[in-house]
Structure formats: structure tokens, C-alpha cells
Amino acid sequence: MPKLLLLILFALLPLSQLNAAEWSSQIGIEARHFFDNALSPQQHGDNLSLTFESEFYHDWDDGQQRIVFTPFARIDQHDSERSHADLRELYWRQTFNNTDLYVGVRKLFWGVTESLHLVDIINQSDTVENLDGEDKLGQPMISFFHSSVVGDWEFFLMPWFRERTFPGIEGRLRPPFVVDQDNAQYESGDAEKHIDSALRWSHVIDDWDVGLSWFHGTDRTPQLVTQTINGAVMLLPYYAQLDQLGVDAQYTYESWLWKLEFVSRRHDNRFSPDLNRSSATVGGFEYTWYGLFSSATDIGLVMEYQYDSRDGNRAPIANNDIAIGSRLTLNDVQDSTLLALVASDLDQRERFISLEGSRRLGEEMSISLEARFFSNTAPQTQLFWLRSDDYLELLLTHYF
Amino acid sequence: MINKKHYALLITLVAMLIPNTVFSMEDEALVKRGLEIAIEADRRDNGFGDSSSSLEMILRNRHGEQSERQLRNKTLEMKDDGDKAIIIFDTPRDVKGTAFLSFTHKLDADDQWLYLPALKRVKRIASRNKAGPFMGSEFAYEDISSQEVEKYSYLYIKDDTFAERDHFIIDRDPVDPKSGYKRQRVWLDKAEYRIWKIDFYDRKDTLLKTLTYDDYNQYLGQYWRANVMDMVNHQTGKSTRLNWRDFSFRNGYSEKEFTKGALKKAR
């Protein structure tokens, strides 16, 4: 993959002389400090990491055609699985009247909520990047976008599946057993070549932003199946087939944002055929007080409830949880922001605490800080395997 | 039963009211005159259809430290409603590609969406922050939002001459209680009804900011646009200068270029 990226990069370089504004790049240096010793002797303590991302775009044909190319790479000090490269985007777009045709690798987002993204299913999560699932791998596709007076319609055909990334044996923030990423199992006989499809309708009706989506294909979230290979216990990712109906809605009124995401799923499940149907919901609000104490500072309160009908060992972390957070926006020249969030499980009381802050330094740098804590992690809780992975991260990014 | 004491009080009250009543009639004429000026200024800017422009923002703090932003802007004039606009951020580089869509309304709260390119996510945002700063500058959201006659009540103050131009001075009071201002004092020239200066008074009626316009050019033989807008905050010593470039009118934009779907493609 990196060789292919370099090849494309050099092929596109002559184009860059047309308009320098079409290239934008960033280099990041990330330092993570783990507060506790690792659970496994193969894992390491503090970690350094370097990232590079570049974006090139070019419009021609009076803006009717566009190509976008976004390569990404990370070099990690300890985790060979976290050292990886990805083509975030490489697509061509042609616009015909009210319809856009896209061919290539794209990244897109569906949904409205803050603490969990249920409806967003097109792109696979790049979980070695971050646990929060907001970093995504590029998805190869042919897609159409059609805008009409009754809403926007999108149709996707995805001929190649992307496997989820997992930390390697030396990486932190992983289950006690390593995920064997070279031996992923698929329900479909077509494996990663299964052609997934999706349809989405979205519309703005006054103060409402609504979306309805349908997905048919390989579930992005694998089940991790314990297997003993040559005496070593490993986790095999098993990707089942999934049909998913998604609903997302936001109601915006004055300082209130009311948000809801709902999914109804049907898995063809080889391991537990009685657990084929499930549903999940995340919903709540964000309220903002503007101009606190006659300053420019805004403070927001976020509250979201997360529910998933799957229980037992199928239950995801967010199955009966409440997330409460606060967003501080200074509205200063450096765009300083801070988001603090606590997600608590209402059954088992484990807590996930997250702090994210960022600020611009000068005109071409930014600094961000992230801290994650896993608390009340009793052996029966879903965060048990992360009990020693509390960390503080400092990220310095240079844009050019 | 009215006794003498009450009678005296009544007389006093009536006496106090009389000059007020006289002033009120005069006031009504001043309100009417103020509104006429605002309507005429608005009428002269009607029918531009759509426009695009580039914008450089220079933010300065009281120590003279400077920070710059490059933006591009597309506006679509709407009949019987506020304008629709898309603003695209080119610098600072960490927010490059961020785009802002607004549907402004004459009296209702504006509709606003923000496109975040790193996540490819469009967020509908609450528009109640009209008094809040736009991109950390001295311009509030309500200062850059489309100016509609209905957003204020008016009062004609007097005529004034400066820079060899004759001006009307009017006061305009925002109708919306969420506005950050008690009133704005506006200088418009008599010849072309162009705004040259606005004094912004905060909710305590203390002078907060002054905006001056400079280097006006006329487009399509009718529409005047200033190349320079300078906002000075008297209370903090900070200032923001806007340098406008590349004005272009009647580009043939339609409503379909000002949608959530189009926002994701904006460059």
C-alpha cells in the first residue's frame, strides 16, 4: 500500500503546480503517557508516534469534475499494528445537474449524536488511531448523490470490505488476547469481496434535520472469537452479514439541540442463531449558555442515554449507559475548546471518562490534549480489559 | 373624593406629561424619518441577485499582535426572506475546508450549519449565539448576518457632514432581545445611502465598538460595496479589519448551491 501511495503522490505532483492551495498537509507528533504498568509484559509504557496526512484536490470542467486524494500514515514507537498507512480518500466526482457520481475511496459521516455513533456505518473504524471510533478507514465505492425538493438521496455500492484495525501484541488499549488480523473469518463466502449496498435519505424540514438509512452487507463491527492456535490463545475477528435500518434526527430550538439515533439490526449469526435481531438507541440533548459572565465564552451541557438490546457477552460497552458532558468554547483567536464527558453504565457502574482540549498555536500549529480514564472496572464489567490503560495524550500538529 | 392635595399632585403629573406628549409627536416624526432612510438604503441594495467575494480578516489585540484569516463567501438574495450564505475558511490552516451555511431570516432565528472536514460531518448549530464573536474576531454573528429592515426600530437623529460628505445619522435598536446591543448609531451618506460608520452600544448603553467603512466601489451600476471594514472594540482595545476582494455579482447561483448537501462539497 505505501508504495502505491507514493506512486500516486508523484503522479499528482505536476498538477500541484497549477494551484498550490489545492494541497494541504499536516504532520503530528503524539506522546501518550500511561498512568499504570501494562497488564502484559509484552506491552510498553509511554509511547511516541508520528503521523502524516496530506490532501490534494483538483476541480475542472467548470467545477463539474473533481478528484480528491488523501493519504495517511502513522509510525508508532512500539505497536507495529498502529504503524500503518491508509488511503483515506481517492475519488473522482462528476456532477450532472442535480446528481453527483462518485467513483473511488471515500470517507463520510452519518448521524447527529456526540457520545456514540450508531447510524454511521459506511466507513470502518480505524481503532488503532483512537478508541472513540471517529477515525475511519477509506471505503472503496461507487456512489450517487441526488438532491431533490423532497430531500437528498444517496446510494452506495461497496465492492471491497475494510477490516477493523486492532492494536498489536506490543500495543496498549487492547484485549488481554491479541486479535489475529491475518485470519479474519467471514460469514459470506465472498469474504471481503462481498458487495455491500446502502441507501440514505436525508432532509431538512424547518427546525428538523432527519435521515433514514438502509445498509445491507458485512457488519463493520466483528465478533471476537477465542481460539487456540499452536497453544496460544488468540481472538479471531468474525464478520457477520447485517441488515440495518437507521434513523437519525435533530431538533434545533434556540439554545437546545435534541438528538436521536436509532438502529434496528438483523444479523445472520452463526454462533447464536437465537440472537439475530437487535436494536440500539442513543438520544439526548445539548444545551448551550452563550457569552458566560459577559465574556465570549460559551458553555454547553451534553446529556445522552445509550441503549442496546443485546445482553450477556454480546452486549457492547454502551448498552445501558448515560453520558454527561460539558463543552467549553472560549471563542478566542486561538479557537480554544475543552470537552469533558463521563459515560456511566447504569447496571455495572463502570465509568469511562474522557477529556479533550485543543488550541491553535500561531497560524500553522495546534496543540491538543486528550485524557481517558476507565474506572470502577470490576472483573465482570466490559471495561475490565482496559483497567490499566488510563492515559494522557499530547498532540502537536503542524499544518502546511 | 379628590382633595386639594390630590388635585395638586394631579396638576403636577399633567404638567409633567405635557412636554412629553409634545416630544412624543416629534418623536413619531423622527421614527418615521429614520425608517424611511433605512427603507431607502435597503431599496437601493435590492435586486443584486447573488454575489461572491474573498475576505481577509486581520485580528489585532491591544499589544498589536496580529492574526490573519482568509475566507471566501457566496451570498444568494432571497425574496421576502433573509439572504442565504456560505462561508468557506481557507486559513488558519487547521480549520481549512471548514464551511458555514446560514439561512438568515428577517425576524426568526437564523438556520446555521457547520461542515467539519476532518470528520466529514455537517452539524446543525444553534443560532442563538448572535451576540457571540465570529471566528474570534470583533465581529459578532449578528454583524455579519444579512441586514434586514425588520431587524431594528429606527430613529432619525440629525444631519452631519464629515469627509466632505453629507450624512444622515440614525439610531437603530435591535428588535431581538438576544442581540448584544442596546442600539447602533449609523452614519449614511445622503447621496448614495452608503453606511460609513456604526457605533455599537452594549446592553448597558455604553459605547462598545465602532465600525468604519472605506474604499467603496460600485457594481452593476448600482450596488456599493466597501473594500475595507474596520471594527474597533473600545472596551478591550482589540480590533478586526476586513479586506474584501474579488466581488462578483449575478453568478447564476441557485438555492441548490446553498443546502446541507452542497455544504459538504464547498471548496
How do you describe this structure in short?
Chain A is mainly beta and 400 residues long. Chain A has one helix at residues 2-16; strands at residues 23-34, 47-60, 65-76, 84-96, 99-106, 139-148, 151-158, 185-186, 196-205, 208-218, 223-229, 232-239, 241-253, 256-268, 277-289, 298-308, 320-329, 337-345, 351-361, 365-375, 391-399.
Mean pLDDT over the residues of chain B: 90
Question: Which word captures the global form of chain A?
Answer: globular
Number of strands of chain A: 21
For the largest beta sheet of chain B, what order do the strands appear in spatially?
6-5-4-3-2-1-13-12-11-10-9-8-7
Total count of domains of chain B? 1
CATH topology of chain B: outer membrane lipoprotein receptor (LolB), chain A
What share of the residues of chain B lie within helices? 10-25%
What is the number of beta strands of chain B? 13
Roughly what is the average pLDDT of chain A, rounded to an integer? Answer: 92
CATH class of chain A: Mainly Beta
CATH homologous superfamily descriptor of chain B: Lipoprotein localisation LolA/LolB/LppX
Assembly state:
heterodimer
Overview of the molecule:
The complex is a heterodimer of chains A (400) and B (267). Chain A is mainly beta. Helix content of chain A is 4%, strand content 54%. Chain A has a single domain, classed as Porin (Beta Barrel). In chain A, the strands form 2 sheets. Chain A has an 18-stranded antiparallel beta barrel. Chain A has a 3-stranded mixed beta sheet with strand order 8-12-11, with no helix packed on it. In chain A, a hairpin with an 8-residue loop joins β14 and β15 (277-289). Chain B has a single domain, classed as Lipoprotein localisation LolA/LolB/LppX (outer membrane lipoprotein receptor (LolB), chain A). Helices cover 19% and strands 45% of the residues of chain B. Chain B has 3 helices and 13 strands; from the N terminus they run αββββββαβββββββα. Chain B has helices at residues 4-45, 141-144, 260-263, and strands at 50-60, 66-76, 84-91, 99-103, 111-116, 121-125, 152-162, 165-174, 181-189, 195-202, 207-219, 223-233, 239-249. A 13-stranded antiparallel beta sheet of chain B has the order 6-5-4-3-2-1-13-12-11-10-9-8-7, covered by helices on one side. In chain B, a hairpin with a 7-residue loop joins β4 (99-103) and β5. Chain A binds chain B through residues 21, 24, 26, 55, 57, 59, 66, 93, 98, 100, 107-109, 112, 134, 145, 147, 152, 202, 204, 207, 209, 250, 252, 254-257, 288, 290-291, 296, 298, 331-335, 360, 363-366, 397, 399-400, and chain B through 59, 61, 67-68, 90-97, 109, 111, 119-121, 123-129, 131-133, 135-136, 180, 256, 259-262, 265, 267.
